[in-house]
Amino acid sequence: MPPNTLPTDYAPEALPAPSRLESFSDGVIAVIITIMVLEFKLPQEPGPKAFITDVIPTLAVYLLSFTYTGIYWINHNHLVNRLKRVDAPILYANLLLLFCLSLLPFATSYVLSEKFNSFSVAVYAGELFLSGLGFVVLSAAVTRHFHRTGTANPVKLATQKAEGRKGFLSLALYALAVPLAYWHPSMAAADLALGTLLWIVPGFMLPASRHSESAGSS
Amino acid sequence: MPPNTLPTDYAPEALPAPSRLESFSDGVIAVIITIMVLEFKLPQEPGPKAFITDVIPTLAVYLLSFTYTGIYWINHNHLVNRLKRVDAPILYANLLLLFCLSLLPFATSYVLSEKFNSFSVAVYAGELFLSGLGFVVLSAAVTRHFHRTGTANPVKLATQKAEGRKGFLSLALYALAVPLAYWHPSMAAADLALGTLLWIVPGFMLPASRHSESAGSS
Amino acid sequence: MPPNTLPTDYAPEALPAPSRLESFSDGVIAVIITIMVLEFKLPQEPGPKAFITDVIPTLAVYLLSFTYTGIYWINHNHLVNRLKRVDAPILYANLLLLFCLSLLPFATSYVLSEKFNSFSVAVYAGELFLSGLGFVVLSAAVTRHFHRTGTANPVKLATQKAEGRKGFLSLALYALAVPLAYWHPSMAAADLALGTLLWIVPGFMLPASRHSESAGSS
Amino acid sequence: MPPNTLPTDYAPEALPAPSRLESFSDGVIAVIITIMVLEFKLPQEPGPKAFITDVIPTLAVYLLSFTYTGIYWINHNHLVNRLKRVDAPILYANLLLLFCLSLLPFATSYVLSEKFNSFSVAVYAGELFLSGLGFVVLSAAVTRHFHRTGTANPVKLATQKAEGRKGFLSLALYALAVPLAYWHPSMAAADLALGTLLWIVPGFMLPASRHSESAGSS
Known about the structure:
8 helices, homotetramer, disordered C terminus, disordered N terminus
């Protein structure tokens, strides 16, 4: 292929495949999600009573954070699965998302140690907002890559657009939780749960998957 | 391919390959299995005597938990190897299994710190029951995926069915260990070992492998 | 192929593909980058004031180290992406780079605990110099591999040469930061930032990517 | 292929590819090698003098253990690269090797805390013997797999045989270090170094690589 047939200075085939972005992200999220559970402390006293009072509440909160991280991993999986190549903006946006997610164990410990007072719930909501923002930025970098390289069909682009709307809706819910935490922390918690529930089924609010992604790979 | 030729709203080719499920699970299990061994403490006093009394018993217990986690990894390897694509229920069932497995280091520390009294052995048996349940749920999600997509031959389905029976048998043995721990902890330990021995040879109680999986890939 | 048709004793097709170098490096860098963030301590006192004074400055410094490690990961990604096979010198040079990078969390903690005095900033600059040296050595091992096996086109070789120049320039800037730390620590910090900025855009100072790497893979 | 054309009950194509063995091993070794370096403690007092006395000796010892683990990773890389499929004995032998390697950080801390007295050097030599044994067992499982499946050419088998001899030679050197530690610890250290030097060049004492492995893949 003579160089002058390339209309732009952007050659998608020169870019790396997403395999390392995937394995690096898997490694980082695996360490985040596992270290959380390994932080469990032994109860101070022996016997079933100390076990139930000390271990069960911590277990419940960490199960939530594990679920939350797991949902991000599943949606990251589906987002990156749409890509054939990755460029530098996608790699940096992915690092930003990983950085935001890596603050979740700290926010979880903080909300536990502060016994769910208004400020700590607002911090936790702020951390969920940050992680959501990281995901929206990564999704936008993917959309930009599709537009610059022309490697996506209309259906993939529609999926990206719908996922962007879903991302902004959950960001709005997370942002709302910050003032709600000062009015009533449990209302904020319900609002945060709502913002996360949107993502449990990866395809919710997106075009039907048989159209969107199968068409892209044929 | 025109959309109306698809009989269901479920297009297997739109789903991600299991590569990321594998690398994420490998990462999580690698952290679980390694952190356990790295938790070893130096003996309080110098010399061979303190080394033998302090290090050898801990080493023996962690060797058991390492083996146990390793057996789950090998069987996970064989289960996921049957898959070409993964859907959301498989991804969530896999997260559940990883969460259950990640509690094993805590249960191991607990049973050591409580010196194998009845309650701590019952907690350990409960954790093995949970991990077994996680594996049965993942295996059921794989079977459901095979039925919905029609991507498995009869031999793969027979393997899944046989593995399900094996899973329920080991669950029954783990559940039995909870009351046994109150009658005699060492009987419970023997019962737990029996439930685990079933899984040491991945093909035990399953149809011969030349039929089951080679046929599936041809 | 009869053995006597091989002009050298060096058969590239006998060497492993870079996949394991990639996944091992991803694992090591994932642990380095995540452990840094997990080292966050809860503030000593409750409430927003302690949160802001204790958490925000640590967060800022760790964000820098996270970014720094992330930039190395991205450039490592692009460097290794040029390879089809890896030989023992590349594997050892990669281990050297990983060792140097793994000292970054320690250097970060040290500069924080010493409150940015001249010696601690010089130690931090020395660690950045070491990491830069590790990258230059790995890049040189890749160039040597290209020359010995003849597996690179002229454009890949030109990219390697340009990247080598960029590496030596940033090494010079890092080395300069060691004496600067004794003159004025903030000048040293600016100099270190300059040496790192060179690497933020992976293609900066390199031949245009459509020529360099796409030509290599066609 | 009709089932009755299979002469044995062993169908290599039913077995998983080595990709997960590789990624799991990479994960475990990545955690082992990184955690060692992250265990560095800050010096007790500020300033260059405390830095040099506290940090430099620990750095030197951990550099050795990092190198040692890295050499095992490189040789593991070359060994597994010969395989197309893995069976259960290979998976278990690999777990054994990973368990042995995971004890190295503990042995390193122990020899440091005991100030290289005879017993601690003997413990360290014992740990190197164990890791060497793990590698010999894994290599034997690979050879057995080649014989059972007939998937290796004569050259691969010759490489395995030569690697086995190399393994036994280093085991003999490690075993010799245990009594040597009671005679003179520094002689034991030299002997251990000799046993490890054999493995620095992966192809040392093996048939020339152009014959051994390139022929296998053609």
